[in-house]
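Quick start: read one record
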Amino acid sequence: MPGCGHANRKGPDGTRAGEKESIRWLEGYARVAELFFAPEEWQAAYLLSEKPLPKKPPRLNTVVRLIAGLGGFLGGKGDGEPGVKTIWLGLQRITDFAAGLRYARQLHEL
């Protein structure tokens, strides 16, 4: 028997009930970059991009675009979303810079 069919019902927007919950869950977590990046990493993205540090943790998409920009993504009007290569290149720069921030803080504490 295929079941009652309730799980396969689609809402007016074309998504299933379970999908809506998942999307809401992901959107809530995607708002805060600190869930995916250490504070030093997203701060490094701002510092290397010569942008002022925000008072509260930024959105994930903002940090990913900053990182991709460090990897060569131009972010023009018709460019779409950044690709894997530009994000990867930017992440390499962020990782090194964030490690430098951590070491500088440790030296300052001595």
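The two ends are 69 Å apart (CA to CA).
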